[in-house]
Design a protein that fits this description.
heterodimer; A: 114 residues; mainly beta; 6-stranded mixed beta sheet; 5-stranded antiparallel beta sheet; B: 112 residues; 7-stranded mixed beta sheet; 4-stranded antiparallel beta sheet
């Protein structure tokens, strides 16, 4: 059965700290891995990763994928209180019937204290 | 552009009642998705559509039906609501499967 596991489930840090969020997966016919940030309501897209070893970067956020070890990390440097959110990892794969499916992890709840 | 909109924002149903959730997008996206989000479960894909007139099953399709008669609209139907369908429902759309998914604000559904 396809699964996506995120760790830690929750994390509390102080402003200025650097954090690393982990996402490991077991899926058949992997296509891509996606990271989302969810604050109060709907998730917002952060990154999509398809190739191993290529870092994607957006401001203080960066992410990388390891397709051999089946995991991805999301780094946030110089954290700010506005980074407080739930970070979701999702893996896109092909189901048995050949159709697409998107499997989400349970998320990591990040709290950044001033 | 309004992006992705969902109606209603909140609804309370009794067990056995039916309802339809509407998702609309004005970005001319081919792909549309319905997810449900439950505490501790993450987002789970219910159904999705790869274009007007098409639908496909996601991870948790049982108890739901969908229709995509017009490209801009994706309807999610509950024929006979059950308490297990109490959840927050998110709609999303994307131009292609490998591009950004844009999410609507969500619909909170309570089935008593």
């Amino acid at each position: 059965e396809d699964k996506v596991v995120q760790s830690p489930l929750s994390l509390v840090v102080h402003e200025g700290d650097t954090v690393t969020l982990n996402c490991s997966y077991e899926v058949t016919n992997f296509r891509s891995l996606l990271w989302y940030k969810q604050e109060k309501k709907a998730p917002t897209f952060l990154f999509m990763l398809t190739s191993s070893g290529i870092e994607k970067k957006s401001g203080r956020l960066s992410s990388i994928l390891d397709k051999k070890e089946l995991f991805s990390i999301l780094n946030i440097t110089a954290t700010q209180t506005g980074d407080s959110a739930i970070y979701l990892c999702a893996v896109e794969a092909l189901s048995k019937g050949g159709s697409e499916k998107l499997v989400f992890g349970k998320g990591t709840k990040l709290t950044v204290n001033p | 552009n309004a992006g992705v909109t969902q109606t209603p924002k909140f609804r309370v149903l009794k067990t056995g009642q039916s309802m339809t959730l509407l998702c609309a997008q004005d970005m001319n996206h081919e792909y549309m998705y319905w997810y449900r989000q439950d505490p501790g479960m993450g987002l789970r894909l219910i159904h999705y559509s790869v274009g007007e007139g098409t639908t496909a099953k996601g991870e948790v399709p049982d108890g739901y039906n969908v229709s995509r008669l017009k490209k801009q609209n994706f309807l999610l139907g509950l024929e006979s609501a059950a308490p297990s369908q109490t959840s927050v429902y998110f709609c999303a759309s994307s131009r292609r499967l490998d591009e950004t998914q844009y999410f609507g604000p969500g619909t909170r559904l309570l089935v008593l």
